[in-house]
Amino acid sequence: MAYLNPAGEFTRDQRYIATRITADGRDGFPVEAGRYRLVVSRACPWANRAIIVRRLLGLENALSMGVTGPTHDERSWTFDLDPDGRDPVLGIERLQEAFLKRYPDYDKGITVPAIVDVPTGEVVTNDFPQITLDLSLEWTAFHRDGAPRLWPDELREEMDQVNAVVFKNVNNGVYRAGFAGTQEAYEKAYDRLFARLDWLSERLGRQRYLVGDQITEADVRLFTTLVRFDAVYHGHFKCNRQKLSEMPVLWAYARDLFQTPGFGDTIDFTHIKRHYYQVHRDVNPSGIVPSGPDPSTWTTAHGREELGGRPFGDGTPPPPPPASEAVQESA
User: Fold this and answer.
1) Three-state secondary structure along the chain?
2) Mean pLDDT value across residues 267-280
3) Pick the catalytic residue: 175, 209, 233, 253?
4) Is residue 239 annotated as part of the catalytic site, yes or no?
5) What is the pLDDT of residues 2-15, one digit of tens each?
6) Of the candidates 119, 142, 165, which is a domain's last residue?
């Protein structure tokens, strides 16, 4: 599979299945406990958002989760972590099967996260920004007691503004650098990325969280890129002006979130490194996966409590993940 764009700038294919699962079922898919399965990879930052939001909101009993292996081929993600190589609920070997079940001529990306309708085995949506928004606003009947408000009404406009620039220059910015096919395209993406990281450092130097005084989805979206930065983006994607661990404010902010229940307990650094270094063979032809960095540094003191803020607002931390969903290896 080729990821580098020989013409220059990397452009993400954002043609996602826009069907929504809503409280009123207006798209034909009403919110129902036990009906749907969230399919994720722990390697993928976009899927990691959904894993974290599901944990914070306490939707484990309402929305089951299937976890693919960290690597894939041109056909799609596979369930090679399960004993017989099949998802135990959907009974399929590849996520591709759920997409083709609904759209036999589907010709776009087979991406995670994806939500599958269990009774029919058909994919419902892989629109990752909408998935997490709907988990917050449409699945409220199944939120745990004490679930945080990840999309507060009074912060929505500011969150939309911050999320837009973070997506363009950071979340997707690292890919624009890593998959650039020309020096000019790479340098343009590199400059935009670090200019935005400097902006974020200044912003987060005076407040504990990205928007408001509690964790919102804006923090979730930034975290999933930052937590992969030193392990993958710094070297593999040539985002190497500095490591995250050399940017004091962002490093402290990221560790603060990592040590917050629902964040660090979703992270599998082994899966993350295996995916990027083994799948992107045009970037890393040898497929060799680096041994470092040392994940234990993520648990060191960060001092962000001094900035105040209430991590979960008027809510409470989520309980530990179910044993069946606990990360087994994170080094």
Assistant:
1) CCCCECCCCCCCCCCCCCCCCECCCCCCCECCCCCEEEEECCCCHHHHHHHHHHHHHCCCCCCEEEECCCCECCCCEECCCCCCCCCCCCCCCECHHHHHHHCCCCCCCCCCCEEEECCCCEEEECCHHHHHHHHHHCCHHHCCCCCCCCCCHHHHHHHHHHHHHHHHHHHCHHHHHHCECCHHHHHHHHHHHHHHHHHHHHHHCCCCCCCCCCCCHHHHHHHHHHCCHHHHHCCCCCCCCCCHHHCHHHHHHHHHHHCCCCCHHHCCHHHHHHHHHHHCCCCCCCCCCCCCCCHHHHHCCCCHHHHCCCCCCCCCCCCCCCHHHCCCCCC
2) 97
3) 175
4) no
5) 777 776 677 777 78
6) 142
